[in-house]
Backbone:
């Protein structure tokens, strides 16, 4: 993944491999190794990696591509673990709470789905024997998903110690759309539906949210609607946890998190509300299957930060129009309709 992003960043300048290697002050074989994955970029010294990230934009690389190197390196570690490569330390899915960018990188490798933020940004591939997308070979994809399923089952037997690994491995397993795989994922998710019955915040809150969203992606939206009603509404800790999780997932929280403890911060500190508003507004356009969760989260964010509509700037107009469009035509729950109506009112009166 990292090599593919690096190659596309080079092609966006555009420079040949030889010219880019000279500009970066490295051997041609080194750059070729980075782009092919033969020499993982993650193994480069931290200082050299930082210099590379700074040099690419200076050379004219697409500034929207360069930040994706971090997510690509995260995805590479997860893929390497899934293919049986030696990855030092804990399993990557147990070592940190991964973000949407990492998940989108994995979806790109597993299903060929270009990250929405990069749609239209990638330069057209040149002629020659080069991959048009960083997709795993079918055999590797099968090995990876088999690993995820066995990891999910092993983590479930670890109890609380395996909670983060279980949650994240199961969520990613739902990316396998084969009929047998989908049946396994649905059965495994439904075995965890007891966590969806809990009201408000609990130690299983993050698992319940992940279970509900995974089921929604598989075509069963009711658990997510139930989760909003039971485990979010009228519980301040749960509402804070939802916003804190969104902040990490959507890139508004810059500091990586090793576990789910950050979600309980009721002070809503450590992240930028404007960045989160931008991410939720973009998601309201791109993720209609989750519209009820986005609607509630937008309402909760604007309720928590009353000044936010005035700071929204150019974002306010398009968001107001999208909300109006949803109110006019979308199939919304009664709660979502009330909350989006309030969001529209607030945005309309802060133009």
Residues:
């Amino acid at each position: 993944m990292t090599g593919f992003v690096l190659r596309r960043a080079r092609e966006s300048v555009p420079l040949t491999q030889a010219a880019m290697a000279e500009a970066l002050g490295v051997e041609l074989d080194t750059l070729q190794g980075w782009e092919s994955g033969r020499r993982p970029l993650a193994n480069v010294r931290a200082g050299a990696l930082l210099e590379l990230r700074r040099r690419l934009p200076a050379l004219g690389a697409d500034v929207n591509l360069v930040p994706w190197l971090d997510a690509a390196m995260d995805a590479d570690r997860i893929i390497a673990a899934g293919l049986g490569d030696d990855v030092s330390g804990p399993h990557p899915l147990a070592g940190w709470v991964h973000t949407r960018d990492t998940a989108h990188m994995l979806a790109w490798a597993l299903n060929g789905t270009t990250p929405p933020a990069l749609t239209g940004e990638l330069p057209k591939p040149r002629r020659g024997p080069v991959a048009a997308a960083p997709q795993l070979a079918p055999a590797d994809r099968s090995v990876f998903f088999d690993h995820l399923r066995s990891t999910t089952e092993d983590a479930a037997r670890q109890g609380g110690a395996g909670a983060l690994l279980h949650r994240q491995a199961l969520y990613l397993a739902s990316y396998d759309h084969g009929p047998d795989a989908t049946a396994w994922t649905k059965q495994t998710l439904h075995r965890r539906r007891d966590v969806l019955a809990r009201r408000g915040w609990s130690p299983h809150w993050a698992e319940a949210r992940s279970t509900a969203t995974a089921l929604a992606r598989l075509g069963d939206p009711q658990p997510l609607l139930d989760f909003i009603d039971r485990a979010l509404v009228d519980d301040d800790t749960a509402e804070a946890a939802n916003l804190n999780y969104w902040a990490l997932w959507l890139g508004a929280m810059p500091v990586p998190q090793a576990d789910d403890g950050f979600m309980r911060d009721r002070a809503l500190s450590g992240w930028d509300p404007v960045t989160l508003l931008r991410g939720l507004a973009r998601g309201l356009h791109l993720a209609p299957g989750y519209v009820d969760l986005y609607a509630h989260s937008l309402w909760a964010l604007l309720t928590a930060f009353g000044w936010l509509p005035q700071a929204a700037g150019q974002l306010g107009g398009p968001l107001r129009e999208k909300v109006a469009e949803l109110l006019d035509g979308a199939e919304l729950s009664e709660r979502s309709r009330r909350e989006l109506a309030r969001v529209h009112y607030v945005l309309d009166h802060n133009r």
About this structure: Residues 174 and 185 are 6 Å apart (CA to CA). The longest helix spans residues 138-156. The two ends are 42 Å apart (CA to CA). The chain has a mean pLDDT of 89.
